[in-house]
Design goal:
Chain A: Keywords: Coiled coil. Chain A: This is Peroxiredoxin family protein. Chain A: It comes from Haloferax mucosum ATCC BAA-1512. The complex is a heterodimer of chains A (191) and B (83). Chain A is of the alpha/beta class. Chain A contains 8 helices and 5 strands; from the N terminus they run αβαβααααβαβαβ. Chain A folds into 2 domains: 38 residues; 149 residues, Hypothetical Protein Ychn, Chain: A (3-Layer(aba) Sandwich). The N and C termini of chain A lie far apart (76 Å). By secondary structure, chain B is of the alpha+beta class. Helices cover 25% and strands 39% of the residues of chain B. Chain B is globular, with a radius of gyration of 12 Å. The model of chain B has no long low-confidence stretch (mean pLDDT 93). Chain B is built from 2 helices and 4 strands, in the order βαβαββ. Chains A and B meet through helix 2 of A and helix 1 of B.
Chain lengths: 191, 83
């Protein structure tokens, strides 16, 4: 037998093998595509601030994303917990100090009553502009299926009781729960 | 006036972001397939926001958006169909 006679047999086998490999790869690619595009987008926000101005962005984005049909988790930690605290959320303050947009110098802004003045000014603007209150945005977000989570470690650190948060807020969760959702999320934000 | 006959109208006049979009979602959920929702807003951001929402949300389409005036104030009408 010459090597020429063996060649076609080897080629045939090899083409069949290649075909099988290509088919296996095609199946794998199509499975991966399906898994990657399950149709539902997902967003995780970490909310760490408890001032009036910093409470709005996470709630506005969360409720809007829920309107898009996204799966949304907002993980509240440290001062972000105040947003979910039923009583404190109605009394969030704006800081007059260190805010260059305030129409007053820092020396004046540092006076004891200035945070209240700045907060009251902002609350009037919010009402006049038809902007939703923090409470309305929390209720709306919860109604739309946003998972508002309160970090268990900071609940204990700040000395809060779980019953002080809005009904529907998820407690008993920590960094691992937040990371698990972030790992599969299309959008991750720290606010 | 629009050529579309809305099944339902959602009035979000006086409300600002994110409420027009959030309330539209809720109102669209109450519609049946093929029905049309008219959203009436005064928020000028609603022109871009509701279009963006409709374009990237499954099962809804923005048929028409029109700007008019009522009492010297701009009014934005959006016609959204549930597919």
């Amino acid at each position: 037998m010459s090597s020429d006679a063996d060649a076609p047999v080897e080629t045939t086998t090899s083409v069949e093998e290649l075909r099988a490999q290509v088919q296996a790869l095609e199946t794998e690619v199509s499975d991966l595509r399906e898994a990657a595009d399950d149709g539902q987008k997902s967003m995780t926000i970490i909310a760490t601030k408890g001032t009036l101005d910093m409470a709005y962005p996470p709630l506005i984005l969360a409720s809007t994303a829920a309107a898009f049909g996204w799966d949304v988790v907002v993980f509240h930690t440290f001062w972000g917990l105040e947003i979910l605290h039923e009583e404190k959320s109605k009394n969030l303050k704006l800081s007059a100090v260190g805010n260059p947009s305030m129409p007053m110098p820092n020396a004046v802004a540092a006076l004891p009553f200035m945070d209240n003045v700045a907060t009251s000014m902002m609350e009037k603007k919010i009402e006049a502009n038809g902007t939703a209150t923090i409470e309305e945005l929390i209720e709306t977000s919860l109604d739309m299926g946003v998972d508002l989570q309160a970090c268990q470690m900071t609940i204990e650190l700040m000395g809060y009781d779980e019953t002080e948060f809005y009904d529907g807020v998820t407690t008993g969760v920590g960094a691992a729960t937040a990371l698990q959702h972030m790992a599969g999320a299309d959008v991750q934000l720290m606010i | 006036m629009s050529e579309y006959e809305p099944t339902d109208t959602l009035d979000v006049k006086g409300l600002s972001c994110p409420m027009p979009v959030v309330k539209t979602r809720g109102a669209v959920d109450d519609l049946s397939s093929g029905e049309i929702l008219q959203v009436v807003a005064t928020d000028s951001g609603s022109m871009s926001d509701l279009k963006g929402w409709a374009d990237s949300t499954e099962g809804v389409s923005m048929l028409e958006q029109e700007e008019s005036e009522a009492g010297g104030e701009p009014v934005f009408r959006h016609f959204i169909q549930k597919e």
